[in-house]
Amino acid sequence: MADLQITVSAQPPAALAVDALVVNIFEGEKPGESTLAALDQKLQGELGRLADLDELPSKLYQTILLPTNGAIAAPRLLLVGSGKRGEFSTNLARNVAGAAVRALLHRPVETAALWIRGTSDGADLAEAVANGAVLATYDPGEYKTTREAPKKHLNAVTILESSVQRANGADAGAVRGRILGEAANFARHLANAPGNILTPQSLAAEAMQAGRSAGFDVDVLDKARMGELGMGALLGVSEGSEQPPATIVMRYRGRGDSDIDLALIGKGVTFDTGGISIKPATDMHLMKEDMAGAAATIGALVAIARLGLKQNVLGVVPAVENMPSGHAMRPGDVLTALNGKTIEVLNTDAEGRLILADAICYAQQLGARRLVDAATLTGAVVIALGHEAAAVLGSPQNWVDQVMASANAVGERVWQLPLFDEYLEQLKSQVADVANVGGRAAGTITAAKFLQQFVNDGVAWAHFDIAGTAWLEREVPYLAKGPTGFPLRGFVELARQLEKSASRSPTVTERQ
Ligand code: BES
Ligand code: MN
Ligand code: ZN
Question: Structural domain of residue 34, as residue ranges?
Answer without folding.
Answer: 5-184
